[in-house]
Amino acid sequence: MASPQARFSAGGFSARVIVCSTAVVGTGAAGYNAADRLWQLGQREILLVSENRVGGTSRNTGSDKQTYYKLTLSGADGDSVREMAQTLFEGQCVDGDIALCEAALSAQGFFKLAELGVPFPRNRYGEYVGYKTDHDPRRRATSVGPYTSKQMTERLEQAVREKGVPLLDHMQVISILSDGHNACGLLCLDTDARGEDERFVLIHCKNIVYATGGPAGMYADSVYPFSQYGATGLALEAGAAGKNLTEWQYGLASVKPRWNVSGTYMQVLPRVFSADADGGDEREFLMDFFESPAEMLSKLFLKGYQWPFDVRKVAGGSSVIDILVYLETCKGRRVYLDYRQNPVGGNFRYEDLDAEAREYLEKAGACFGTPIERLCHMNAPAVEFYRDKGVDLAQEPLEIALCAQHNNGGLGIDCWWHTAVQGLFAVGEAAASHGVYRPGGTALNAGQVGSTRAAQYIAARRPGLPEPDDGFEALAADALARMGALARKALAPGGGQNARDLWARAARQMSQCGAAIRSSGQIRDYAQCLEQLLDAFDGTVKAAGEEELRWVFRLRDMLMSQYVYLSAMADYAAAGGKSRGSALYTDPAGQKPYPQLPDTFTFALDDGSRGSLVQEVRYTRGRCAFTWRPVRPIPEDDDFFENVWRSYRETGNID
Prior knowledge:
This protein is an alpha/beta fold. Strands 1, 2, 3, 6, 7, 8, 9 and 17 form an 8-stranded mixed β-sheet that branches. Strands 12-11-15-14-13 form a 5-stranded antiparallel β-sheet. Strands 16-10-22-23 form a 4-stranded antiparallel β-sheet. 35% of the residues lie in helices and 18% in strands. The chain contains 19 helices and 23 strands. It has a domain at 251-403. The two termini are 27 Å apart. A hairpin with a 4-residue loop joins strand 11 and strand 12. The chain is globular, with a radius of gyration of 25 Å.
C-alpha cells in the first residue's frame, strides 16, 4: 500500500481511504494468480481485497475428478495452439481472440501451477498425461482428483503470501467507483466493523482486477458453495457490458454438501429414489418413465460422462434424467442417490446394459456387489470426500437436485481481459470468455490465462499510482453518501422486509423461472417484479442488526444481477433464440420429446445459426439495452519470426 490510511467524509458519513496501484478483488485461483503475476512483473503497490479469504468457489468446489484443460502435452497425438483455439471457438458465441489467448497461454499457466507444486500426474518420462473430457477432440484434460482447483488456490496463495502482498479480508465491495467509462476505486463494507464510523473503507486505485467469480447467489438450487455470492451486478452497474449472460451450465449435484455428482458417482449405478418432505413414501420414480431397468441404468451411467444438462441429449439421451429429477422436486418431493442398495431390487443384468456402460464396467472389474462396493473399487477418494464432509455413503442416501454450476457468460472483455470500463479487468468466472458449450475444465485454464493477460497489460500500460485528478473524490462522495444512507435506512426501526428473507425468496424464484427450464412468460413476470423491488429498494429492505448489513448489500447486487440476466434471457427468446446448451426454453410451436412429459417440455432445438452472434447488454439507470454483434474471428496475425521479434522488442506486443 502506497500511503497511510486517511479519512474521507461525504453526506454525513466517513470512511478510511487506502491508495494503491491495483486492487485485486477475490482470493480464488484467478485472483491470486493476478496478484502473483503483477508482483513478478515488478508491480509492488498492489492489494488483495476479499470478503472471505477461504470462501470462494475455486477453493470449495470440485467433482469426482475435477478437470483442468490445456494443450496436449503427452503421447503421439498431434495438437497445436491453433487447433485448441478452434475447439474453444466452436463452442458457439466465443470471440476468436479470446479463444486464441486461452490456447496460447494454456501451457504457460499449467507449467506454472506444476512448478508451484500442484501434483498433476506425469509418466516416468515426464509427459503430463491426459484424457478426453466433454466437447474435447483430443486428450487435453488432466486432474489431481476431486480438489484440483482447491490445490491450485492453495499453492497460488502460498506464492503470494511469500511475496508479502497485503490482503484486506472481510471487506465486501459494495460499489465500484466509475463514471461509466473509467474506474478509479472501490467502496467496501468492513464486515468486522461495529458502528457507523468504522463501517466503510474506500480504495483509491488505478486498476481493479475483478475476480469475484460468477453470480452464485442468484440461485437457490446451486452447486456453488454457500460462501460464494459473486458481485457481477456491481460491475454491470459501473458500466461493464454483460456478454452471453443467457449461457449457463446446470447439472445434478448433492444438496448437502454442494458437490457435482458426476463421473463414477453415476457410473456405479446407484439407486435413485424420491421421498416426501418427511422422508417417507420412497419411490424409484425413474422406472415410471423407462420401459426396462437396463434402459434406465444405461442412461444413468451416461450422466457420469455427460454430466451437464444438455438440451440436445433430452430426446433419446441421458439429459432426460435431469428433467425427471427436476420434475420430482417440483412436486415437493426430495430426490436421493442411494449407494447402499442396488436399483430395482437388484433385478437387472450387466449384460443387458448398452454397450458403452457394459464395456466400461467390465473393464473396470465393477460388475459386482452394491453401488457403494463398486464406488469404493473404482474411485475410493469419491467416497472419502463425502465422509470428510460428514456423509457416509455406506450408511445414508445423498440428496440431489438440478443445480446451477457455472456461468459461461459474464462481463464482456477484450483480449487483455479489460472490460468496457477503463481500469476494470474481469478474470475467472466473472469474465465472459466462454460461449454455449465448452470442454470440461476450460474454466480453470481461462482463470489462469485471463489473470496473466490482465497483469501483463497493467504492468506494461497502466503501472503506477492513480492520478490525483481522476475523479475519485466526486465518485467517492456520491457512493459513500448513497450507500451510507442505505445502511442507515436499513437499520432504522419501522416497516420493511428483512434482507435475508428477501434473498431466500428471490433465489428460489430464480431457480424456478431462470435456470435450466425457462418460460418466457415467467421470466418477464419475475423481471418486472425485480424492477419494482429495485426501484423501491432504499427504505424497503431492512437488516436486523449491524451484522446483517452485509445481506442488504449482497441482496442489492444479487437483484441487479437477476434483473439483467433475466432480461437477457427474455431478449434472447424475443430475438428468436431457441433451446441450446444447458437451457430449455418452453416453446408451444416446438416438439415434446416424450408424450408423458408436461407441456413445459415442449421446445425447439437451436439450429446453430446464432452461434456466430454475441448478445451484449448495458445496464444504465436501472434498465437494460441490448445489442447483438458477430463474434470476433480467430486472429490471423503475421507469425514470421523476425517481424514478431522486432515488434516484441519495441512494445512487448502489448497494445
